[in-house]
Specification:
Layout lengths: L1 H26 L10 H10 L1 H12 L25
Length: about 80
């Protein structure tokens, strides 16, 4: 009984992680994907959930924090307006 519960819990965790990786791959823009096209990554994730998920996490996309370039602000640092404190 305990072993069956453990297997069900582990299968549920693997399924949730696989689903998250699959959605992450599908939503990642093509220019951030490395090595092979997005379609091949998705097929790999569908056929090998655990190994494919690990490969996608560590090899599949570029690191967003490693991109270089200026930071563009969309709003001013200090909001101006009429009114006091």
């Amino acid at each position: 009984m305990l072993m069956t519960l453990l297997v069900v819990v582990l299968a549920g965790i693997v399924a949730l992680l696989w689903w998250g990786v699959l959605i992450d791959c599908a939503r990642t823009p093509e220019e951030q994907i490395r090595f092979v096209p997005k379609l091949l990554w998705l097929l790999f994730l569908l056929h090998a959930p655990v190994i494919g998920g690990l490969a996608w996490t560590y090899l599949g996309k570029t690191n967003r924090t490693a991109t270089r370039g200026p930071v563009h602000r969309t709003e001013p640092l200090v909001k101006s307006g009429s009114g006091g404190i």
